[in-house]
From TrEMBL:
Keyword S-adenosyl-L-methionine recorded: no
Cofactor(s) listed: Mg(2+)
GO biological process, one term: carbohydrate metabolic process
The species this protein was found in: Exiguobacterium sp. (strain ATCC BAA-1283 / AT1b)
Sequence intervals crossing the membrane: none
Keyword Phosphoprotein: yes
Name this polypeptide is given: Beta-phosphoglucomutase
Length: 216
């Protein structure tokens, strides 16, 4: 293996709560309340698809034009940006800084493949921009996860064959995208949920290069 490609949300930092609060605020504006269980179905998918799922939940999928839906997506992002403006390096998930340092010292290339259009901003606020050789976010791809495009673009930017890449994800859609890209898939979370991953760590604190190299 020559490169490691990370998802952002739920792997580098946990912005899932901010996404939830932002979508919840938009849902309330539209009269479509939903709970955390439904929010789980929005993880790892694009902003556009998340909006469609919320509208379907409320039976309002046909109430808005494409232009109006775009404005709703922008409004959600405005909610989200206001929440993430407070993110600092204290929000980096346990063990990630050490793991990134391990990879860098071992000579691996490091990339990011995020479904967030705010990946650059969040990574900068975390103080981790220099840790990544390249970041691909939702603003630069056509297809969202589980399509492999974002991971394939990251591998291309790193000039590494996808078969020589390890993808790290916390969402089922992300694991599917990694495998579709032909990469080794590492899951972060519940092994009963991330059943398609090649190896699963319950949390980032357990993620180490030594443990991974035994399995790859």
């Amino acid at each position: 293996m020559k490169a490691f490609i990370f998802d952002l949300d739920g792997v580098i930092t946990d912005t899932a709560e901010y996404h939830y609060l932002a979508w919840k605020a938009l849902g309330e504006d539209l009269g479509i309340p939903f709970d955390r269980a439904f929010n789980e179905t929005l993880k790892g998918v694009s902003r556009t698809e998340s909006l469609e799922r919320i509208l379907r939940l409320g039976g309002r999928e046909n109430d808005f034009s494409a232009e109006e839906k775009e404005l709703l997506a922008i409004k959600k992002n405005e909610h989200y940006v206001s929440f993430i403006s407070k993110i600092t390096d204290a929000d980096i998930l346990p063990g990630i800084e050490v793991f990134l340092k391990e990879l860098k010292e071992a000579g691996y290339k490091i990339g990011m493949a995020s479904a967030s259009k705010n990946a650059q901003t969040v990574t900068s606020q975390l103080g981790l921009l220099e840790a990544f050789d390249h970041i691909v976010d939702a603003a630069t791809v056509i297809h969202s996860k589980p399509h492999p495009e974002v991971f394939l673009k990251a591998a291309e930017a790193l000039r590494v064959d996808p078969k020589e890449c390890v993808g790290i994800e916390d969402a089922v859609a992300g694991i599917t995208a990694i495998h579709e890209a032909g990469m080794f898939a590492v899951g972060i979370g519940d092994p009963n949920v991330l059943t398609e991953a090649d190896i699963v760590f319950e949390n980032t604190a357990r993620l180490t290069l030594e443990k991974l190299l035994v399995r790859i």
